[in-house]
Structures are given as C-alpha cells and as structure tokens.
Design goal:
Elements lengths: L1 E6 L5 H13 L7 H6 L7 H9 L3 E6 H8 L7 E5 L3 E5 L1 H6 L3 H11 L1
Parallel strand pairs: 1-2
Antiparallel strand pairs: 1-3, 3-4
C-alpha cells in the first residue's frame, strides 16, 4: 500500500514563489489545505517531517500537475489517496478543509494506514 498526497499547487520554482507570496499576503484565501497543515510559509513542519520519515507506510507527495501526468486523471485538490490494486480517495478536499490541526491529520493518516 502507498499513500499519495496531492497538493493544490503546480510544480516548479515560479509556482513555489507564487504560493509563498499567497501564504504571506493572503493566508485566509490560500486553498491548499494540505499544504497549510504540513508546511509553514517557507518549509515543512518539523512534526510532519518526523511523522512521515518514521512511518512504515510508503508516501508519495505530488503537485497536481505531476499527479495528472502520472495517473492521467483529474480530481479536486488537495487530497490524499490510497493505492493498492486500485486508487481510492481517503481524504477529499472537503475533508482536509475540515481538519483543524496537523495532529488531526496525522491521527487520520494513522487510522487508514
């Protein structure tokens, strides 16, 4: 089993700079709930980093453009999927938006892994 985390952002340095600016100047309208939980403005949250590095579950982290190229499908982002023989959404955009903390995300991931 593998978990696939798809951010509501495109890859590339220009997009990264744009996202940082959005987080700095208008955080209330930043709509990558997954990124808001797992990353600060400039770097990955240390608690999240420790969790993912110590987890026995394989995790793949993709931007939406990378996901769409690799899997040839489009979804509503951000989301978390589980890949076994097939791919299923385990945390939708709406469900991620309802999470209030990184700890809640970690506990949810532990529950499905």
């Amino acid at each position: 089993m593998k978990l696939i985390f798809v951010y509501n952002a495109d890859s590339g340095m220009l997009n990264t700079v744009k996202d940082i600016g959005h987080k700095l100047f208008s955080p209330q309208t930043y709509d990558c709930f997954l990124c808001s939980l797992t990353h600060g403005t400039f770097k990955e949250d240390p608690v999240w980093k420790s969790f993912r590095e110590s987890s026995p579950v394989t995790m793949d982290f993709l931007h939406r453009d990378e996901f769409e190229r690799r899997y040839d499908r489009r979804e509503e982002y951000p989301l978390v999927m589980k890949e076994t023989d097939s791919i299923e959404i385990i945390l939708s955009r709406e469900q991620l938006a309802e999470l209030s903390s990184l700890e809640e995300l970690i506990q949810t991931i532990k529950g499905v892994a």
